[in-house]
Amino acid sequence: MIDSVPALAAGLLLGALLATGSVSAQPAYPPLGDVASCKQYSGLPPEGVASEQMWVPGGSFILGSNTHYHEEAQARKATVEGFWIDRHEVTNAQFRAFTNATGYKTLAERGLDPKTFPGLPESMYRPGSTVFEIPRELNIANLQWWHFIEGTDWQHPSGPGSSIANMDNHPVVQIAFEDAQAYAKWMHRTLPTEAQFEYAAKGATTTTYPWGKSLHLNGKDMANTWSGVFPFQNTATDGFVATAPVGCFAQNGYHLYDMVGNVWEWVLDAWTPYHSIEEEPHPDIDLEDSLSVQARTPLLGTIKGGSFLCSPSYCKRYRPSARHAQDRTMGTNHIGFRTVALP
Questions:
Q1: What are the residue boundaries of the structural domains of the chain, listed by start?
Q2: Is 0.70 topped by the overall pTM?
Q3: Does domain 5-104+169-341 have CATH number 1.10.10.10?
Q4: Is residue 326 reached through a cis peptide bond, with omega within 30 degrees of 0 on the bond before it?
């Protein structure tokens, strides 16, 4: 965990002062941090609370890593100003409130415009999105566990026969980049930058995970990830095969949940195959499970945090420094988002 309780308390107070001009007590958020509490959570902020955001005081930290995947290099010092960030991923309940208020239809519900993206196969223009399915046989070269399925969208995240009934407190998925931006604009916010997201996940610590050096802490699962033999068997030792309700795992030092694991999250930055613009791309970069291999457009964005599909044997990206390419026009059933606001 991030050992910054005094600084964090000061940061929360400062954020309240900056945002309102006076001292403001933090709202009484519902308790989260374990399976029992997260399953009771409605997925919406408490009555009378506009948002569930936490204050992250500005500071400097090491962005990226030189000891993991090549696209995380070169590690370098970065500085961010203080900001508010959602306590957890945007939930189905929160996204429904947005669509009910605005009538917004996601890109998966609308389909691509052939005038904007000419030359694609006809099936790629139809409303739908990409779904993970356990393959019958292993053929890594084809990444055959990803399938574009017509009728897939945020309300039908695993295909037209699926539903989010009784999943109001789960993170919304099947969200394209522009969908996340539309929600953020409605909330008078924005998506986090990659630096903001990574700093909120780990602060100034240099450990591999927000809580320490190993995936587990005292034998306890700290995030919703893949356990078992990927992609054939998820033993669900953490309690979940797919998405978990938000806030089922321990908060980090900034009182944030699921900054690693559960679902990948969109950030503002366009994709670059390495951090430093002065550095040449590494010839051995291999985004193992990259949907950019099957991207339908060249509009690649960046996602952070890893998901329930990341395993130690295949995609060890449930770490703050990890990053991944993603077609900005394509959601999946393991990509969501959260928002930030400046004081």
A1: 5-104+169-341
A2: yes
A3: no
A4: no
